[in-house]
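Recall that a protein's primary structure is simply its ordered list of amino acids. Everything else, from secondary elements to tertiary packing, is in principle encoded there. The following example makes that idea concrete.
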Amino acid sequence: MRRLAIAFAFLSATAVHAAPCITSQGEFGSYKQALGQEAQAAGVGQRGMQALQQAQLSGVTWRFESNPSSQTGTSYSDPATFLTRRFSSVDSFVSNARSRLNNNASFYDAIERAYGVPGELLVSIWGYETSWGGYTGETPVVGGAVTLASYCRRHPRFEDDAIAALQLVDRGVISSNTTGGPSGELGHMQFLSGNWVRYGVDGNGDGRADPYNAGDALASAANMLRANGWQAGQPYGEGTANFRALSAWNDSGNYQRAIVYAAQRVAN
């Protein structure tokens, strides 16, 4: 009987710290309260907890998640067609990417020596994600990350990223007001917070890893790909090990094919 009592006590404690998902915007406050218990257990400090308290539900994130049909699963046989969903001209995209690659060739060469990921691939991802830093998003990172984690269709897969966003506030990497993508994506390459915690590196030598610094973001993307199976000096076309490594960055086959297509054109 005592063993059952101990087990019940453990389950009760676990339940206290669990943050159940929500199905209405009005429940966001209660979700934050439950997430706060998890965050404290994960070691989130005062600044991170204050950021959580201040976080507002992201309406754009909620609307996006409430409309799964907007997140098309259509398969595009032609990667150029997929690219033109966002960019009016593939030729212009490739030209811009090639220009950035050539104008900073020594930097991209250094990244490839360090991580094995070629510059044409990184500059293509950068261009697709934020138009080379031209638009990094207008949604508060913490609010977007917590909203995504709260939504039942996404919970609990993205809860670690919400807690990681609070940890980044603690570390001074972001503030409670820092803006990014609608689901809490960060900076030039639109990292999720958990991936930045795992893979963020100092790419420009200033002693800190900042997702809103292009050099740091590009080096961190290469670091993430290498950690997820990228093989230096090997091809990255569809069917290769390096193509499969791209799934760690984005698991959409459409995305992967489009990035590879663009990168191959940039390199030629």
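Strands lie at 139-140, 179-180. The longest helix spans residues 2-17.
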